[in-house]
From TrEMBL:
Primary residence: nucleus
One GO-annotated biological process of the protein: double-strand break repair via homologous recombination
Record protein name field: Replication protein A, subunit RPA32
Keywords: DNA-binding, Nucleus
PANTHER family to which the protein is assigned, alphabetical: REPLICATION PROTEIN A-RELATED, REPLICATION PROTEIN A2
Alphabetical list of SUPFAM superfamilies matching this protein: Nucleic acid-binding proteins, Winged helix' DNA-binding domain
GO molecular function ontology, one term from the record: single-stranded DNA binding
InterPro entries for this protein: NA-bd_OB-fold, RFA2-like, WH_DNA-bd_sf
Amino acid sequence: MSEFDGGFSLDANGGFSVERNSQRQAGARQSLTPVTIKQLNDADQPIPDGEFRIHNVNLSMISFVGIVRKVVPLANLIVITIEDGTGSVEVRKWIDDQKMSAAEEVERFEAYLSKYVYVGGALKMFQEKKSVQNATVTLIEDHNQVLYHNLSAIANHLKAQGIVPSKSEKLLFVSADDKGPKAEIERVFDIYKKHSPSMPEGVPISFVAQALDISPSVVMEYSRELSETGRVYLGTEDTCFIAIDV
């Protein structure tokens, strides 16, 4: 196993757990588990303030896709209601006025109404109600991302139950040897892998886009896919990623 600022290992959820010995918190665990909103709503919290759990899967840092149905601005945050056909959940986004004004933040998320978004964040209990906090919310521009996420959530659930997909089921996921878009996503990952050691806060999407002469939106799409499969994780900014197996 190679190392970068700590290490990584497969966890019981079927995803990656990352230990980062950085200034933010030594030994902090990060994992990103693809789920549906129903799984979030059905999850139990055996220990107060502990991790949520459902069907042998620990839910700490999670990801899901859904449609933005409501945006409600409050004093210091924005509450975004998202549903995916299995249920709905609130995402709480704190306003960082160092980056963007409250009005600009509200306008940004109101533009997402009735559109699909990808969300990554921490499942928490707030005032006896589940919500997603410390969240990244990005607009989905290719509907294939929704399908891919749902397949990832199913595969992760089956793995947690000890069910091994058949050969035909595995063919749902494109092989890394395939040509075309899959080859391009490997090029994106190669840039993250090459530059992560020299950019410990994360390799910017704009940097990758410039290096490969492709659009930042395409890089973001591939980065989300790499994140869901446990190959990269978010840096200190929403638009920076770090390769795990460097």
